[in-house]
Task: structure prediction
Amino acid sequence: MDFIYSMICVLFLMLCKINSANAQVDVISQQAIITLTEQHISSNKNFDGKLKGYRVQIFFDSGNNSRIQATNIRNEFASRFPKISTYIIFKEPNFRVRVGDFRTRSDARGFQQLIVPMYPQSFVVKDDIYYPKHIYEQNNDK
Result:
């Protein structure tokens, strides 16, 4: 009895193999799905690499030497945290130094708590950030 079942299974598999050699797949989808796919593709073409997120602001000042101070603080921070991105932003009349590219406020807040002994005036701000590197991309940079 088992022999008959196994022979039937073998014959069935052989028939499937013969029919699959000439198989063709037709994809039938609704127009709404096609439209959404096209919109997704076009939005990715216009992606400039920035998204809404958070940074930690460690310095802001206006005055005669504010650019020099901002540059010095940025260089000092970069030497302490070489893997964290730093940005000097000028919005009249202040120079600002912002650090990090965090997707969530809690990530930014956690980092801010880490650096608050060195930068007691630091605080979290909402900003357009560059897409943060994934863990495997950071490991490949070593």
